[in-house]
């Protein structure tokens, strides 16, 4: 009898550990950093002579065109000349241009959204996204996007994975140090990518582009996805500190005429936008003592309480990108000559581990 009881002891201990672990993981937890709060950021309307444009995306993945807002305003204000760039095949299939309100795609009539199809599919709900295209005469247009993580604990998407899943090819990747002009240097990661579009006649159009990114939270900046992951794991488990992370990406078309032009463009543009990011980091840091209590799963309380930016709302299917995710995609919209090309910016890592 006693021997039998002794045999049962390891099993009982194991059971007790399982129960204790469950109680431990299921306990309410208070975290700091306000990952559901307002993001005090507004993308500047002007940066060093660049004028900002809002970009809207067609929600139909067979079309997936991108438009500058001013282009849509021109459409509704009866200016057919601005529609020259739309491929004739699309024009044939669409209703009269002038009757279409700005909220629908002039090409196919589907609703337009500030969130691209790729972002809607890849990112959790309530992911705030801030994006503008910056345009200046004589320069390739620069698309600047900042995606913020919330409290969500789903899998992390490396930017590289997102880019490829949206139909881009990465041909080179390297770190690059940008002189911020005040004695400091910011290390960013630069990818040479090839955006693959479907052309008007079904042919493949390949557009080379530069895609640069880095990551920040109120305390840290890094160009390394792995470092960000480690910082998050340590802050979350040892400090209960779970602030928002921001993922900045800057992209523009690369010219084959001048192989060094991308450096000049980054050297100029990054220091222009950097103070905007410093400002939002300071303001987010001021929210660090705001607490959130997690009772069960953090995804249940993954909301965005702020009003700035655009926010993803589409339900994700099983947390994975759809196999028929939009193939044509471009971090930078095409230049003025053909601004109706698809332009789905790659999505960002927006999750907590
Ligand atoms: Zn469309």
Characterize the structure shown:
- By secondary structure, the protein is an alpha+beta fold.
- The chain has 2 domains: 251 residues, no CATH class; 54 residues, no CATH class.
- It is built from 7 helices and 15 strands.
- The radius of gyration is 23 Å and the shape is elongated.
- The N and C termini lie far apart (48 Å).
- The chain binds zinc ion.
- The site of zinc ion has 8 residues, from loops.
How would you sum up this structure in a few lines?
The protein is α+β, with helices and mostly antiparallel strands. It is built from seven helices and 15 strands.
Name the features:
alpha+beta, binds zinc ion, single chain, 3-stranded antiparallel sheet, 353 residues
Name the overall outline.
elongated
Query: What is the H/E order?
Result: HEEEEEHHEHEEHEEEEHEHEE
Computed Rg: 23 Å
Mean pLDDT: 78
Distance between the termini: 48 Å
Fraction in helix: 25-40%
Strand residue percentage? 25-35%
Write the layout of secondary structure elements.
Layout: H1 2-26, E1 29-32, E2 46-47, E3 50-53, E4 55-58, E5 66-68, H2 69-76, H3 88-93, E6 112-113, H4 117-122, E7 128-135, E8 142-148, H5 159-165, E9 168-179, E10 185-198, E11 204-216, E12 221-222, H6 225-239, E13 246-253, H7 261-285, E14 291-294, E15 310-311
The structure holds zinc ion (ZN).
The site of zinc ion has 8 residues, from loops.
């Amino acid at each position: 009898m006693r021997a039998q009881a002794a045999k049962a002891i390891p099993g009982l201990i194991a059971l007790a550990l399982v129960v204790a672990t469950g109680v431990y993981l299921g306990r309410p937890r208070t975290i700091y950093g306000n990952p559901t709060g307002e993001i005090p950021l507004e993308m500047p309307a002007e940066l060093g002579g660049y004028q900002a444009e809002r970009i809207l995306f067609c929600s139909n993945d067979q079309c997936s065109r991108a438009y500058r807002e001013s282009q849509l305003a021109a459409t509704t204000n009866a200016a057919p000349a601005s529609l020259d760039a739309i491929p004739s095949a699309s024009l044939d299939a669409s209703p009269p241009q002038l009757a279409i309100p700005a909220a629908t795609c002039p090409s196919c009539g589907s609703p337009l959204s500030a969130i691209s199809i790729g972002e809607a599919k890849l990112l959790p709900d309530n992911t705030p996204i801030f994006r503008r295209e910056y345009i200046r005469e004589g320069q390739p247009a620069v698309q600047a996007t900042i995606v913020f993580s919330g409290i969500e604990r789903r899998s992390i998407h490396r930017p590289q994975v997102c880019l490829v899943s949206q139909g881009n090819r990465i041909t080179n990747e390297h770190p690059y140090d940008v002189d911020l002009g005040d004695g400091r240097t910011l290390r960013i990661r630069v990818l040479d990518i090839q955006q693959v579009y479907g052309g008007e006649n079904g042919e493949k159009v390949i557009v080379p582009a530069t895609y640069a990114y880095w990551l920040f939270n109120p305390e840290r900046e890094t160009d390394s996805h792995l470092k960000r992951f480690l910082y998050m794991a340590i802050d979350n488990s040892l400090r209960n500190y779970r602030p928002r992370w921001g993922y900045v990406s800057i992209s523009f078309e690369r010219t084959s005429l001048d192989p060094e032009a991308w450096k000049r463009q980054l050297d100029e543009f990054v220091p222009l936008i950097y103070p905007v990011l410093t400002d939002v980091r300071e303001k987010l840091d001021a929210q660090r003592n705001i607490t959130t209590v997690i009772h069960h799963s953090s995804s249940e309380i993954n909301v965005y309480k702020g009003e700035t930016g655009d926010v993803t709302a589409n339900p994700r299917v099983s947390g994975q990108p759809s196999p028929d995710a939009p193939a044509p995609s471009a971090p930078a919209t095409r230049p003025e000559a053909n601004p109706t090309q698809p332009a789905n910016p790659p999505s960002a890592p927006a999750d907590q581990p």
